[in-house]
Amino acid sequence: MSGHSPEAIKKEVRTYVAVFVALAVLTVLTVGASYLKLSLGAAILLALFIASVKGTLVAAYFMHLRTEKKIVLALLVLAVIFFVVLLFYPSWHHL
Amino acid sequence: MSEAGLIKHISHPHPVTGVTNSKLGVWCFLASEVMLFGGLFSAYILLRTGVTDWPRGHEILNVPLATLNTMVLITSSVTMVMAWASLQMKSLSKYRLYMTLTVLLGLAFLVVKAFEYGHKFEHHHFPSTDNFYATYFTLTGLHGLHVIGGIVVNLYFLLFGVKMWEKEPDQLAGRVEAAGLYWHFVDLVWIFLFPVLYLL
Known about the structure:
The complex is a heterodimer. Chain A contains 3 helices and no strands. Chain A is mainly alpha-helical. Chain A folds into 2 domains: 1-63; 69-95. Helix content of chain B is 75%, strand content 0%. Chain B has one domain (3-199): Four Helix Bundle (Hemerythrin (Met), subunit A). Chain B contains 6 helices and no strands.
């Protein structure tokens, strides 16, 4: 992302502010949803969905993954695959 | 100075990877951090699904304080990326302003967290109390250590690292971007910790 023109950076800054507003709204939504007395299953799905949207926004915009080079994305795909295995394999027979 | 001992491709992208070595290095580190927190999240799932009754976080933890802390950390992510953007726009004074705000917001997060911990200790809730508190203190404690680490790095770039601006502005911007990647990752971890521990 280095070497961007000042105009391009100014446009980026407007995007950062928009992402910030979206993150704040989603935080309020996820807290609000926790008062809805949903079943545990539905509550987990909704909370993880909102968290995933927020996480994607942070990674795509603040961490510049939207415009990042392939090698970084490839590295992360590898990490995500291992992460999913690590997350679910040990508790597979419980789920 | 001899070229031999210098790490190459830290201000400009490596011709093969297309990114600076420093950025690739930080991403490798963050990939290992994903596994570190992944192991603990996995332990959480295993412990929670292994018992019939597990407390709902909002019944025993302070959701308003944690919501405040979520907002604090999200805001600090914006100020961090603004510090980097300020360097891109060649404004050192704005960089200093946004980096100071980032450090202060990180400290604010820790103060709120300390209140939460203090409240738990007053009521004799410790990591040894039960599996819920063991998980809660391990995950938030490790995350808190990461916040402390980020504050130290950001303070360095605010007070000392900034001297590089006159001679190597691109390298400083690259360093701040790399520190930012770490800081956003710490924010990202909290985005998942918050609902998992407090809301579910």
